[in-house]
Amino acid sequence: MMVRKIYDQVLRDGVHYVKAAGLSTDQKPTAGICTGSYFIEVNTAKEFLFDESLNQWYEAPSGYIAP
Questions:
Q1: What integer is the mean pLDDT of 26-48?
Q2: How confident is the model over 40-60, as a mean pLDDT?
Q3: Which of 32, 62, 35, 31 is nearest to 47 (CA)?
Q4: Which residues contact 50 (CB under 8 A, 6 or more apart)?
């Protein structure tokens, strides 16, 4: 499968706030993505939030409700 961007908004400084979906085996996007971007793995139902300062995705805490 491939990663699908469901929502992509360009912010003033040129970075993108995205909501995306894909499989756990897919490479999550990192280039030009802002902190707070969202990714869901459709085969595991795990949700992730992006931290641009470390260029890393973190699993969202249990009970997290995506915006």
A1: 96
A2: 96
A3: 62
A4: 28, 30, 33, 34, 35, 36, 37, 38, 39, 56, 57, 58
Which residues does residue 46 pair with via DSSP β-bridges, in sequence order?
A: none
State the pLDDT confidence band at 27, using cuts at 50, 70 and 90. very high
Cα–Cα distance for residue pair 19/49, rounded to 1 Å: 9
20 near 28, Cβ under 8 Å? yes
pLDDT tens digits, one per residue of 5-16: 999 999 988 999
Bridge partners of 1?
Answer: none
CA angle in degrees (0–180, nearest 5) for 45-62-38:
55
pLDDT of residue 1: 64
